[in-house]
Each structure stands twice: as structure tokens, then as C-alpha cells.
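Protocol step 4 of 5: obtain the predicted structure for the target chain.
Materials: sequence only (see below). No template structures provided, no constraints applied. The aim of this step is simply to have a reference model before the mutagenesis design in step 5. Sequence pasted as it appears in the construct record:
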Amino acid sequence: MAAVNRVFAAQLAGLPVFGPDGESIGKVRDLVAGLRLDAQPPRILGVVVELTTRRRVFVPMLRVTSIEPNAITMATGSINMRHFHQRPNEVLVVGQLLDAHAFLANTDTRVTVIDAAMEPTRTRDWVLAKLAIRERSTRLGLGRRRSSLQVVPWTEVSGLGLTDLSGQPQGAGQLLVLFDTMRAVDVAATLRDLPLKRRHEVADAMDDERLADVIEELPEDDQKELLSYLPEERGADVLEAMNPDDAADLLAELTPADQSRLLELMEPEESAPVRRLLAYSSNTAGGLMTPEPVVLAPDATVAEALARIRNAELPAALASMVFVCRPPTETPTGRYVGCVHFQRLLREPPAELVASAVDTDLPALRPSTPLSEVTRYFAAYNLACGPVVDAEDHLLGAVTVDDVLDHLLPEDWRETGLHDVAGEREGEIHA
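Step 4 output (C-alpha cells):
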């Protein structure tokens, strides 16, 4: 996203939204923020965009690549065309927060919220960090004194009553505050120990991306239980937010009817790689791989490659290697040329082409390669990530070492392992 330090909600409302190729998509109608029960600024989850058809849809902030004074631009990919519905843990910044009445913190000074500003954090999230406020008008003699506008940190305003808008139980809200500081694997461990009703309350209040991260860390039985609890449309949204290989593993455990129904509800662009993965056995390279490795054309520069692997959202194992292929660079790609290890990229001039640094000697896995051979392959070549190529030399995806370990460990490793990982938090969390 473009380097913007602060954006006010009122400035965004009504701005046109464009796709990566300049095509008009619609207009910004609102910002969606995730509610918190503590005093910290809410995280901006995404944008409500009104399409030319008047339908309002939700676009996650991760899909927004730039914010300019006259427009915002989205990354490539499909839009979830389902009509936007506000969830219990969300607030509409323009529709519900602006013109709300509140107090300056620790005072009885009444204020009105005139505008709200979002700012980026170090983790690339956006938070509702500042509020533009005006003191409520007071009568002086026969006239009124109009106070000046102030921009203050979110923490200096209280009494907005946003937690009342959420409708979520107090206990679940307290857990969400704590979960916000925890890794997904620790949240999953804690969630397993909660009563079923509380577990469902927490799932209802989580946003799709966070819930997807947590579900990926749960044992299969808990994954299936939680997915079956969610309404089917939201279940499809969560599957879209999961890594395709994890989504395929979960869908493979469902009945064919449930599997088919959820795949149909997913956006075609999101379901296509999952369908391809479901065609492979789970104990082969094809069943283990992710279809979303870092792929570049031969004429890309080393600087471009380094920028791609610097992405904070990219798992460390996938960031260890860049794959060079002829166009198209979406899997299945054009002809596979070779790979470039990230340490080699660090030694090359930024303007150099990645084609000049390609390792063509590393053999590729075939999608039918069994797990036992994949394991020996990773051990022999000391890899964190390896290419999977079909008979026509198209790159299909990449297997990462964490996926190999996941399938080598006993089936119940998450039950025992997660309990040990989360043990130090026992006594801190109350259902």
C-alpha cells in the first residue's frame, strides 16, 4: 500500500475504487472496524464498497494497495460479491461512529465525534488511531459558543458505547482482547479448552482472517466441528481466507455433499486452487503443496524478488525461495526455469535479473511423489521449500518443511502439543 500516514474516514467516503488495471469497481461507502473491550484503538478490517449495481460488498484492507486523495486501488483478484452484512463485533465508522456523543477521558466534558482517522501500524494493520472531536455547544447569555475542533488519540475519548453495539457476551469479549496479543497456535490451544458455547461465541466475534488462522492450528475434529457450526456462507468465507492447502485438507474430511456445497459458495478464483489440490492424495507432494509460492518471470529484477519475500504476510518457509517461470506466473505456470534461494538474492546487485541467479540443478518434485520420498528430498538438499512440477514442466506449487513435519507427526500431535504450548497461560483465561 502507498506510504500514507493518516487517512480520515470522511475523506474516503465517496471516493472511486479502481482495480489494478485501472478498471472502475465502485465507490467507498464506509470503513469497517473491529470492536475491542479495552481502550486500544480498533483495527480497520476493511472497506464497504458500493458497486455500480448498487450492491454493497466488503473488501478486506489487505486487498487495498494504495490510498490517494482522489481514489483507492485494489490488488488483483476477485471480489466476494455477497452483500455486506455487519457482524456483531464490527462498527461502521461513517455510519455509526461519526456524530456519536462521548466524553473526554477522565472528565465530564461532552464531545461529538466529527471524524475518525486510521493510521498504519508496524504490522501493516490499520487502526482507528485518532478522533476529530468538538465539545458540545454551551450557552453563554443569549448566544452559543462554538468550540474549536480537536484531533485527539482514540484513548482520550470514552463513553462511545461501542461495546454495546457488539452484542457479544462479556466473557467472549474479554477473551478476544487477550487473543489479540497471542499467536494463532496459542489461541487454538485455548479455544479447545473452552466450553462449546463459549467457543462458538468467540468464533462469532472473530473476523474471518483471524478465525481462518486459528482453524488452521486446530485438530481435524475441532476444525470440522467449528466449520459445521458456522453458517455456510461464512464457512465459505473462512475457507477462502485459509491457505489453499489447509482449506483442501479440511474439505477432504467432509462428506462429498458438504464439500461440494462449500466449494460452490466460495468465489471461483478462491475455490479453483483448492479443487486442484483435492485431486491429489494427501500423502503425496501434490496433496502437501501450496499453490501460492513466490513466482517471478525471468525478466524480473533481484530488487523485485526481495520486495516479494519481504512481505510480512508470507510464511518464512515460502520466503526462503523464489521460483522463476515463463508466463503465466500464476500456478499452474508456464515452463518452470528454476529457483533462486533468498541468500543468493542477498548477494546479487538489486538491478540484476533473477534469471542470472537461477539454480537449475535442484531437481523438482512430481505431484505423485510419496511423502517418504518428499521427506528424503528435504533432508538431502537441506531445504525449507521445494518446487512441485508436472510432466510438462509447469510449476504447480511448492511443498514447505512445516507441511512435511505436520504429516510426519502422530495424528494427535495437535492435542498433546498444543496443550503443552498453552500450559503457561493456564490460570490467565477464564471461560
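Step 4 remarks: The chain has four domains: 7-90, 96-165, 168-279, 295-408. The chain is about 35% helix and 25% strand.
Proceed to step 5.
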